[in-house]
Structure formats: structure tokens, C-alpha cells
Amino acid sequence: MARINKITLTLCALFFTSLTLSPLTHASENARPSAIQKAHSEKTKKKSSQTKTTSKKSKSSGKSSTKRVASSSKKAKATASGKTLARRGKLSSSDALLKGKKLQTLAYTEQCTKRKGHKKRCVKVKAEQPTTIAAAHKLRVQKAQKTALNKLMDQIGKPYRWGGSSPRTGFDCSGLVYYAYKDLVKFRIPRTANEMYHLRDAAPVDRGELESGDLVFFRTQGRGTADHVGVYVGNGKFIQSPRSGQDIQITSLSEDYWQRHYVGARRVMTPRTIR
User: Fold this and answer.
1) What is the pTM for the complete model shown?
2) Is 173 a catalytic site residue?
3) By CB distance 3.0 to 4.6 Å, which of 54, 59, 96, 238 could disulfide with 230?
């Protein structure tokens, strides 16, 4: 009997322990999928955050690329404008200054107004400086003078030829002047020294105010007001084709002969007359 009682007691104990453990196992089994779900949700959150950051980076990179494209387009426009200015730069600087008012330098002046019972009010206003146009005209004239003098200097040593006006045949005095100036001024250059002296488009010049390129006139044979002409080259000297038997040369105005026969000077190259 005692043995049977022990067996029954052990069976009862095993039964009760199985009853107590079964809900725990069921609970652990139920808890497992919730943990898996939590881990899965955490992974999805991380992926979503990563996609957000990558999208932000792509947006920022897109903006930077658009900025780069815009800057490159601006640079392209700047280079294009620079090329156009370079093309314009093929013209002389003086001609560029004359192409409208935009290239003129500007200065500021104050315009003040005052009313009774009120304070004086002053406003800064842009004022154009016409001196830039004068400087541009001066550059154009200097360029024309230099061109004429270069043409004249190339003829030094060539023989006098009456009626000649070409480097191939030689020059007389007025033919040399005609050759040097015919393509530089707007008006027609006459063919004789006396006609040049009375030219309406030429301005009289005092001897003390002579500049390179001015025409100097002499009366050597008593024919008309002037029968000989040369071109002043500076430093009290002029270039001329003197007479038959002599070559084209540079002569000093201070020589007695030329001082005695000097009758005046004319300026044919001015901002109004040059091309």
C-alpha cells in the first residue's frame, strides 16, 4: 500500500508541474513573435531613415549640380561678352571710346534744392565727362599723324620729280604731301602748293604752335602766295622734296633761306577732317 501511495503521489506531482509549466511555455512562444516584429520594425525604420538621408543627399547634389551649371553658363556668357569686346578691340581705342556714351567715364555731382522753411536737400547725380571724348579725338589725330609721317619717312632719299606723286616715279613738293594725306582726310587734297595754302578745310597755325603733320609753306620764286610746301616733323624740322637734282630730305626751319621765304603753316589733320 505504501508503495502504491508513493507512486500516486509522484504522478500527482508530475501532473501539477506539467500544468504549471504549460502556460509559461505558451507565453514564451507567444512572446517570440512580438520580439521578431519589434526587430523587423526597427530594421524598417533604419531603412526608411537611410532612404531619407540618401534622398536629401541626392537633392543637395542636384542643387549643387544646377548651381554648377548656372555658374558655367554665366562663365560662358562672360567669355562670350569678352570675345565680343575683343572683336571690338580690333578697332582703335579712340574709336571704341567714340562708340556711344556707355564707354565714357562718369563722375558724380551734387544737385541741391532748398525751400523756405525746409532744410537743403542734396542728391548725387552722374555727370558725363566730355574730356574723354577729347582724349579719344586726340588719339585718332595722333594715329593719323603717325601714319602720314611713316609714309613720308619711307620716301627719304628718292629723287625729286616735277609733277611726280608716286613712290615709283618720285615726287615734287606738293606731290609728296598729296601722297601722304590723300587717304587720311575726308576732303580732297589739292595738287599744287598754292591751292593747299588756300584750302578751306585747313586751319592756320602759328609758327610757335607747330605740331607733327602740319604743312609749312614757302614762297621761293615769287609765284602766287606760296609755291613750295613741306611737312613739319617736330624739333624745328620739316621733310620736303626741294627741287630738281636733289633728293627728298629733312631740313631745319631755322636755316636762313627757309626763314626768309617762310609764309605760314596749315593744319589739315583735325578730329573733324580725318577719316
Assistant:
1) 0.53
2) yes
3) 238
